[in-house]
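Data deposition worksheet. Section B asks for the primary sequence of the deposited chain exactly as it was used as input, without tags or linkers unless they were present during the calculation. Section C holds the resulting structure in C-alpha coordinate form. Section D is free text for depositor observations; keep each observation to a single sentence. Incomplete worksheets are returned to the depositor.
Section A, Depositor: J.P.
Section B:
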Amino acid sequence: MYLCAAVQLRSTDDIVSNFERAEGWIRRAALAGARLVTTPENTTFLGPAASKLRVAEPVDGPLHRRYAALAAELGIFLVVGSVAERAEVADRCYNTSLLFGPEGALWGSYRKLHLFDIDLPDGPRFVESATILPGDEAVVVDTPLGRIGLSICYDLRFPELYRALVARGAEIVTVPSAFTQKTGRDHWHVLLRARAIETQCFVIAPAQEGRHDPAGLRDSYGHSLIIDPWGTVLAECGEGEGVALALVDRARLADVRRAMPVMDHRRFGSPNLLRSGTSGPPASRDRL
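Section C:
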Protein backbone atom coordinates (compact mmCIF):
# COMPACT_ATOMS: atom_id res chain seq x y z
CA MET A 1 0.00 0.00 0.00
CA TYR A 2 1.32 3.44 -0.87
CA LEU A 3 0.18 7.02 -1.39
CA CYS A 4 -0.35 8.38 -4.91
CA ALA A 5 -1.06 11.92 -6.08
CA ALA A 6 -2.90 13.61 -8.94
CA VAL A 7 -1.68 17.18 -9.42
CA GLN A 8 -4.15 19.72 -10.82
CA LEU A 9 -2.66 22.62 -12.78
CA ARG A 10 -3.62 25.65 -14.85
CA SER A 11 -0.85 25.60 -17.44
CA THR A 12 -0.34 28.41 -19.96
CA ASP A 13 2.06 29.24 -22.80
CA ASP A 14 4.74 30.24 -20.25
CA ILE A 15 6.94 27.16 -19.89
CA VAL A 16 9.03 28.68 -17.08
CA SER A 17 6.00 29.50 -14.95
CA ASN A 18 4.46 26.11 -15.76
CA PHE A 19 7.52 24.29 -14.48
CA GLU A 20 7.73 26.36 -11.31
CA ARG A 21 4.08 25.75 -10.42
CA ALA A 22 4.20 22.06 -11.32
CA GLU A 23 7.40 21.66 -9.28
CA GLY A 24 5.74 23.26 -6.26
CA TRP A 25 2.79 20.87 -6.30
CA ILE A 26 4.98 17.84 -7.00
CA ARG A 27 7.12 18.74 -4.00
CA ARG A 28 4.03 19.12 -1.82
CA ALA A 29 2.77 15.72 -2.92
CA ALA A 30 6.13 14.10 -2.18
CA LEU A 31 6.32 15.83 1.19
CA ALA A 32 2.90 14.35 2.01
CA GLY A 33 4.38 10.92 1.33
CA ALA A 34 3.29 10.22 -2.26
CA ARG A 35 5.47 7.66 -4.04
CA LEU A 36 3.66 8.02 -7.36
CA VAL A 37 2.92 11.57 -8.52
CA THR A 38 1.08 12.41 -11.75
CA THR A 39 0.53 15.71 -13.60
CA PRO A 40 -2.03 16.65 -16.30
CA GLU A 41 -1.97 16.65 -20.08
CA ASN A 42 -0.04 19.65 -21.46
CA THR A 43 1.86 20.10 -18.21
CA THR A 44 4.77 21.89 -19.86
CA PHE A 45 2.84 24.04 -22.35
CA LEU A 46 -0.80 24.89 -23.04
CA GLY A 47 -1.15 27.59 -25.67
CA PRO A 48 -1.24 28.30 -29.42
CA ALA A 49 -0.42 25.34 -31.63
CA ALA A 50 2.31 27.16 -33.55
CA SER A 51 4.09 28.03 -30.32
CA LYS A 52 3.77 24.44 -29.12
CA LEU A 53 5.71 23.28 -32.17
CA ARG A 54 8.47 25.80 -31.39
CA VAL A 55 8.90 24.60 -27.80
CA ALA A 56 8.73 20.88 -28.65
CA GLU A 57 11.88 18.99 -27.70
CA PRO A 58 13.09 15.37 -27.64
CA VAL A 59 12.19 13.10 -24.74
CA ASP A 60 15.68 13.76 -23.31
CA GLY A 61 15.44 17.53 -23.93
CA PRO A 62 16.50 20.08 -21.29
CA LEU A 63 13.02 20.76 -19.87
CA HIS A 64 12.20 17.07 -19.60
CA ARG A 65 15.53 16.41 -17.88
CA ARG A 66 14.49 18.91 -15.19
CA TYR A 67 11.48 16.73 -14.38
CA ALA A 68 13.73 13.67 -14.36
CA ALA A 69 16.05 15.40 -11.90
CA LEU A 70 13.08 16.37 -9.73
CA ALA A 71 11.91 12.74 -9.59
CA ALA A 72 15.43 11.69 -8.58
CA GLU A 73 15.73 14.40 -5.93
CA LEU A 74 12.40 13.44 -4.36
CA GLY A 75 12.83 9.70 -4.86
CA ILE A 76 9.41 9.28 -6.52
CA PHE A 77 7.87 7.81 -9.62
CA LEU A 78 6.67 10.79 -11.64
CA VAL A 79 4.26 10.72 -14.58
CA VAL A 80 4.57 14.02 -16.44
CA GLY A 81 1.12 13.79 -17.98
CA SER A 82 2.09 15.08 -21.36
CA VAL A 83 4.76 17.13 -23.05
CA ALA A 84 5.35 18.33 -26.60
CA GLU A 85 7.78 15.78 -28.02
CA ARG A 86 9.63 16.80 -31.17
CA ALA A 87 8.74 14.66 -34.18
CA GLU A 88 10.53 13.73 -37.39
CA VAL A 89 8.49 16.27 -39.40
CA ALA A 90 8.74 20.03 -39.00
CA ASP A 91 5.03 20.84 -38.69
CA ARG A 92 4.03 18.16 -36.19
CA CYS A 93 4.97 16.97 -32.72
CA TYR A 94 3.79 14.17 -30.42
CA ASN A 95 1.62 14.56 -27.33
CA THR A 96 3.68 12.33 -25.03
CA SER A 97 3.42 11.08 -21.45
CA LEU A 98 6.71 10.47 -19.62
CA LEU A 99 7.22 8.15 -16.64
CA PHE A 100 10.37 8.83 -14.65
CA GLY A 101 11.66 6.60 -11.86
CA PRO A 102 13.09 7.54 -8.45
CA GLU A 103 16.64 7.46 -9.82
CA GLY A 104 15.70 9.92 -12.59
CA ALA A 105 15.67 7.40 -15.44
CA LEU A 106 12.92 7.31 -18.05
CA TRP A 107 10.99 4.10 -17.33
CA GLY A 108 8.49 4.53 -20.14
CA SER A 109 6.83 6.93 -22.56
CA TYR A 110 3.54 6.91 -24.43
CA ARG A 111 2.41 8.92 -27.44
CA LYS A 112 -1.28 9.81 -27.44
CA LEU A 113 -3.17 7.49 -29.79
CA HIS A 114 -6.50 9.27 -30.20
CA LEU A 115 -6.38 12.90 -31.30
CA PHE A 116 -8.97 15.45 -30.21
CA ASP A 117 -10.65 16.62 -33.43
CA ILE A 118 -14.11 17.82 -32.40
CA ASP A 119 -16.63 20.54 -33.25
CA LEU A 120 -19.31 20.72 -30.58
CA PRO A 121 -22.59 22.60 -31.16
CA ASP A 122 -22.43 25.78 -29.09
CA GLY A 123 -19.02 24.63 -27.88
CA PRO A 124 -15.33 24.73 -28.71
CA ARG A 125 -13.70 23.41 -31.87
CA PHE A 126 -10.35 21.62 -31.68
CA VAL A 127 -8.27 20.01 -34.40
CA GLU A 128 -5.39 18.36 -32.54
CA SER A 129 -4.31 16.47 -35.65
CA ALA A 130 -3.34 19.76 -37.30
CA THR A 131 -0.15 19.82 -35.22
CA ILE A 132 0.04 16.44 -33.46
CA LEU A 133 1.05 13.04 -34.81
CA PRO A 134 -0.72 10.04 -33.24
CA GLY A 135 1.18 7.30 -31.49
CA ASP A 136 0.86 3.66 -32.49
CA GLU A 137 1.40 1.61 -29.33
CA ALA A 138 -0.35 0.81 -26.05
CA VAL A 139 2.16 1.10 -23.19
CA VAL A 140 2.28 -0.61 -19.80
CA VAL A 141 5.31 -0.06 -17.54
CA ASP A 142 6.26 -2.64 -14.91
CA THR A 143 7.32 -0.86 -11.71
CA PRO A 144 7.74 -1.83 -8.05
CA LEU A 145 4.49 0.06 -7.40
CA GLY A 146 2.55 -2.04 -9.90
CA ARG A 147 2.08 -2.26 -13.65
CA ILE A 148 1.14 1.21 -14.87
CA GLY A 149 -0.83 1.68 -18.10
CA LEU A 150 -0.41 5.07 -19.75
CA SER A 151 -3.11 7.01 -21.61
CA ILE A 152 -3.95 10.65 -22.31
CA CYS A 153 -7.25 12.57 -22.15
CA TYR A 154 -9.32 11.82 -25.31
CA ASP A 155 -8.12 8.21 -25.13
CA LEU A 156 -10.65 7.89 -22.30
CA ARG A 157 -13.47 7.57 -24.84
CA PHE A 158 -11.99 4.42 -26.38
CA PRO A 159 -12.47 1.51 -23.96
CA GLU A 160 -10.68 -0.91 -26.29
CA LEU A 161 -7.40 0.83 -25.42
CA TYR A 162 -7.95 0.19 -21.70
CA ARG A 163 -8.86 -3.43 -22.42
CA ALA A 164 -5.54 -3.71 -24.26
CA LEU A 165 -3.72 -2.20 -21.27
CA VAL A 166 -5.30 -4.74 -18.93
CA ALA A 167 -4.40 -7.54 -21.35
CA ARG A 168 -0.80 -6.33 -20.98
CA GLY A 169 -1.09 -6.57 -17.20
CA ALA A 170 -2.10 -3.03 -16.14
CA GLU A 171 -3.11 -2.59 -12.50
CA ILE A 172 -3.01 1.21 -12.41
CA VAL A 173 -4.06 3.45 -15.29
CA THR A 174 -3.11 7.11 -15.61
CA VAL A 175 -5.35 9.49 -17.56
CA PRO A 176 -3.72 12.95 -17.56
CA SER A 177 -6.25 15.28 -19.14
CA ALA A 178 -7.39 18.74 -20.16
CA PHE A 179 -11.14 18.15 -20.54
CA THR A 180 -13.19 21.13 -21.64
CA GLN A 181 -15.82 22.58 -19.33
CA LYS A 182 -18.64 21.36 -21.59
CA THR A 183 -17.47 17.76 -21.94
CA GLY A 184 -16.13 17.61 -18.40
CA ARG A 185 -19.42 18.51 -16.75
CA ASP A 186 -21.29 15.72 -18.54
CA HIS A 187 -18.72 13.00 -19.17
CA TRP A 188 -15.61 13.22 -16.96
CA HIS A 189 -16.75 11.39 -13.84
CA VAL A 190 -18.86 8.76 -15.58
CA LEU A 191 -16.17 7.83 -18.13
CA LEU A 192 -13.41 7.56 -15.54
CA ARG A 193 -15.54 5.47 -13.18
CA ALA A 194 -16.55 3.25 -16.09
CA ARG A 195 -12.93 2.65 -17.08
CA ALA A 196 -12.06 1.77 -13.46
CA ILE A 197 -15.01 -0.62 -13.12
CA GLU A 198 -14.56 -2.42 -16.43
CA THR A 199 -10.78 -2.79 -16.14
CA GLN A 200 -10.76 -3.34 -12.35
CA CYS A 201 -7.78 -0.97 -12.13
CA PHE A 202 -6.92 2.02 -10.02
CA VAL A 203 -7.43 5.09 -12.21
CA ILE A 204 -5.40 8.25 -11.56
CA ALA A 205 -6.60 11.25 -13.57
CA PRO A 206 -4.73 14.53 -13.01
CA ALA A 207 -6.42 17.38 -14.86
CA GLN A 208 -5.98 20.90 -16.14
CA GLU A 209 -8.31 23.47 -14.57
CA GLY A 210 -9.61 26.93 -15.39
CA ARG A 211 -8.86 29.47 -18.10
CA HIS A 212 -5.47 29.15 -19.75
CA ASP A 213 -5.44 32.42 -21.73
CA PRO A 214 -6.86 35.93 -21.17
CA ALA A 215 -9.53 35.48 -23.84
CA GLY A 216 -10.80 32.29 -22.24
CA LEU A 217 -10.42 30.28 -25.45
CA ARG A 218 -9.22 27.30 -23.40
CA ASP A 219 -11.18 26.59 -20.26
CA SER A 220 -10.60 23.25 -18.55
CA TYR A 221 -12.92 21.38 -16.22
CA GLY A 222 -10.47 20.23 -13.54
CA HIS A 223 -11.78 17.81 -10.90
CA SER A 224 -8.70 15.59 -10.81
CA LEU A 225 -9.73 12.14 -9.60
CA ILE A 226 -8.31 8.97 -8.06
CA ILE A 227 -10.65 5.97 -8.34
CA ASP A 228 -10.35 2.43 -7.01
CA PRO A 229 -11.02 -0.80 -9.00
CA TRP A 230 -14.62 -0.93 -7.72
CA GLY A 231 -15.30 2.52 -9.20
CA THR A 232 -15.24 4.35 -5.88
CA VAL A 233 -13.85 7.89 -5.97
CA LEU A 234 -11.07 8.01 -3.38
CA ALA A 235 -9.99 11.64 -3.87
CA GLU A 236 -11.00 14.64 -5.97
CA CYS A 237 -9.72 18.17 -6.49
CA GLY A 238 -12.17 21.04 -6.59
CA GLU A 239 -11.50 24.38 -8.23
CA GLY A 240 -8.04 25.87 -8.60
CA GLU A 241 -4.65 24.23 -8.62
CA GLY A 242 -4.01 21.54 -6.04
CA VAL A 243 -3.34 17.88 -5.44
CA ALA A 244 -5.55 14.86 -4.76
CA LEU A 245 -4.03 12.15 -2.55
CA ALA A 246 -5.16 8.57 -2.02
CA LEU A 247 -3.82 5.16 -1.11
CA VAL A 248 -3.23 2.50 -3.77
CA ASP A 249 -3.87 -0.86 -2.12
CA ARG A 250 -2.91 -3.72 -4.44
CA ALA A 251 -4.61 -6.16 -2.06
CA ARG A 252 -7.86 -4.29 -2.72
CA LEU A 253 -7.30 -4.74 -6.47
CA ALA A 254 -6.67 -8.46 -6.01
CA ASP A 255 -9.83 -8.81 -3.90
CA VAL A 256 -12.01 -7.09 -6.52
CA ARG A 257 -10.61 -9.21 -9.34
CA ARG A 258 -10.97 -12.40 -7.30
CA ALA A 259 -14.57 -11.69 -6.32
CA MET A 260 -15.66 -10.77 -9.84
CA PRO A 261 -13.21 -12.36 -12.32
CA VAL A 262 -14.52 -10.58 -15.42
CA MET A 263 -11.24 -11.10 -17.27
CA ASP A 264 -11.75 -14.86 -17.01
CA HIS A 265 -15.37 -14.54 -18.11
CA ARG A 266 -14.69 -12.64 -21.33
CA ARG A 267 -15.92 -14.52 -24.40
CA PHE A 268 -14.64 -12.35 -27.22
CA GLY A 269 -11.73 -14.72 -27.64
CA SER A 270 -14.19 -17.16 -29.21
CA PRO A 271 -13.87 -17.48 -33.02
CA ASN A 272 -17.67 -17.48 -33.33
CA LEU A 273 -17.99 -14.14 -31.54
CA LEU A 274 -15.21 -12.59 -33.58
CA ARG A 275 -16.68 -13.72 -36.90
CA SER A 276 -17.98 -10.84 -38.98
CA GLY A 277 -21.36 -10.75 -40.61
CA THR A 278 -24.95 -9.67 -40.14
CA SER A 279 -28.25 -11.49 -40.06
CA GLY A 280 -31.47 -10.64 -41.86
CA PRO A 281 -34.90 -12.05 -42.63
CA PRO A 282 -35.18 -15.55 -44.09
CA ALA A 283 -35.00 -15.82 -47.87
CA SER A 284 -38.65 -16.86 -47.95
CA ARG A 285 -41.36 -16.60 -45.33
CA ASP A 286 -45.09 -16.64 -45.09
CA ARG A 287 -46.61 -13.24 -45.46
CA LEU A 288 -49.65 -12.34 -43.43
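Section D:
The mean pLDDT is 92.
The domain at 2-267 is CATH 3.60.110.10 (Nitrilase/N-carbamoyl-D-aminoacid amidohydrolase).
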